[in-house]
Design a protein that fits this description.
274 residues, Double Stranded RNA Binding Domain, globular, alpha+beta, 11 strands
């Protein structure tokens, strides 16, 4: 990605299911001076930034969609009552909103562990990110990519985010060449919605911004729902791609006006699985 760069491996901390544990390990290496540039999966980075650090660059985005691995060629084609593995409340909420007959099972572990559980017959299907499977060379496992209109991706899904110390101008100059302005605007819009809704990486919230380069416009889709799919809402805004923060704020207001805060509050108190 960056010529002459040296890879510094870091260990994650925290419990399984705690998405931020990956972020904390990288941030600690930056703050301790062991690394100059931190690379994150953008969907795992909280909107409240750690003191002393800044977001420096967003490279070109990968496919942001979710992938179904298992029986079926579309969500409608998945066998009735199928057992589906996911650790994501966002995915569970949208699966059950579309297919209440599905049996969602909590599934943790790395990609290999999850694929092994499927291969061993414990599950009929699992849902993972298209981008993650592609980056791991496992794209051939994908049965179909779920259209973002049916399953709105997590904010930042498919994007990498580069982080540096706030006072490191050399690192800032080093990453400048790989900034993708379109991906940066899309991520800005998505994180604006998350921030204004007061949501977290674990909230059952999907936000996906997509830029139409030909029309110079951006569309942002959002989903908010309870993990069991019993209550949910969707909304969309479109507008000038050069105003991602304003567009994100407009969508957040629409969501709040139609009950998103109540759904998120109920989801935070959720005692069920996933």
């Amino acid at each position: 990605m960056l010529g002459g760069a040296e890879l510094v491996e870091v260990a994650s901390d925290g419990q399984v299911g705690d998405k931020a544990r990956f972020v904390r390990g990288v941030e600690r290496a930056l703050l301790d001076g062991k690394a100059e540039i931190g690379v994150h999966s953008a969907k795992d980075v909280p909107v409240e930034l750690t003191d002393g650090l800044m977001l420096a660059a967003v490279p070109s985005r990968e496919d942001a969609r979710d992938a179904w691995i298992g029986a079926g060629a579309s969500l409608d084609d998945v066998p009735e009552g199928a057992k589906v593995g996911t650790a994501s409340r966002r995915r569970a909420a949208q699966l059950l909103a579309a297919r209440p007959d599905l049996k969602v099972n909590e599934l943790h572990g790395n990609v290999d562990t999850r694929l092994r559980k499927l291969a061993e017959g414990h599950l009929d299907g699992i849902v993972l990110a298209v981008a993650g499977l592609r980056r791991l060379g496992r794209a051939d496992e994908i049965s179909f990519a779920i259209p973002s209109e049916s399953m709105t991706p997590a904010a930042g899904q498919g994007s990498l985010l580069l982080q540096i110390r706030s006072d490191d101008q050399d690192a800032l100059r080093a990453v400048d060449a790989i900034v993708d302005e379109t991906s940066l605007r899309e991520l800005t819009a998505e994180r604006t919605v998350v921030s204004l809704l007061g949501a977290t990486c674990d909230s059952p919230l999907g936000v996906h911004a997509k830029t139409d380069a030909h029309a110079d416009e951006m569309r942002i889709d959002a989903f908010v729902g309870l993990p069991d799919g019993s209550a949910w809402l969707r909304d969309r805004v479109e507008g000038d791609q050069s105003e991602p923060t304003l567009l994100g704020a407009e969508l957040a207001k629409r969501l709040l006006d139609t009950g998103a805060r109540e759904i998120l509050d109920r989801a935070e108190k959720w005692s069920g699985r996933v």
